[in-house]
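Narrative summary of target 7.
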Amino acid sequence: MPELPEVETVRRALAATLVGRRVERVDVRRPDYVRGGQTAKNLLVGGVIDRIERHGKQFAVVTRDGRAVCVHLGMSGQALVSEGMTEAPSHTHVEWTLNGAARKSTFWRMRDPRRFGGVWTYRTFDSLVQERWSTLGPDGLAIDAAFLHSALKRTDRCVKAALLDQSVIAGVGNIYCDEALHRAGARPQARASAISKARASRLADAIRETLEESIAARGSTIRDYRDANGDAGDFSSRWRVYGRAGLNCLTCGSLLRDGVIAQRTTVWCGRCQR
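Modeled conformation, tokenized:
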């Protein structure tokens, strides 16, 4: 499932193309992919794209008159843009047509073969935040040591389970959880409430640094993820633990271990992470 870096990469690519463009029409090809009102007005027709916001693994397209569409990519969702008339790829569920350069239309398409994602419509961006994003924790890029230590002290779950909880931190999933824990030298099995202030500080830094490095590399592609231009991300070539069970730790040379922790396949180094 795309995590914060992948969604931020998509957000930036969409913003570069869509902001300032007027939505001329929308074609809903699969109605059950859209939650909320499905009229042209609900789906931004007639509005000029003002900005594209993101919180955790979700992004929102907001028009100048305040209307908003929230998108969650799920496991296989792709938000694709193209300039000029092109054939929509298979499994395109919603297609927006916007005015483009040189009298050519711009197309924004939501493609999702497995349909675990979706589109939600809201009258205003504020109502989106109140109804959908208010249950999420701080964005992973904004997490700080004091907040993280306080949140971890309140639960006896293992630290990996706590970090995967989107009400604690929004945007961190299995890949970046494993990577940040290794960078911070923290065992994924450790009891969250036992994490010291010093370790929480290292962990908060590791989360932000890992996410920022992945964004710089346009995210991680395993199977379905592509950015808005259809390109794969490159951070998967820089993973230090995720997907490397049985290989040597790039820090100390020990064999990396793996197991199921918090219902997720987990990889860690028994020497570096204590």
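The chain has six helices and eleven strands.
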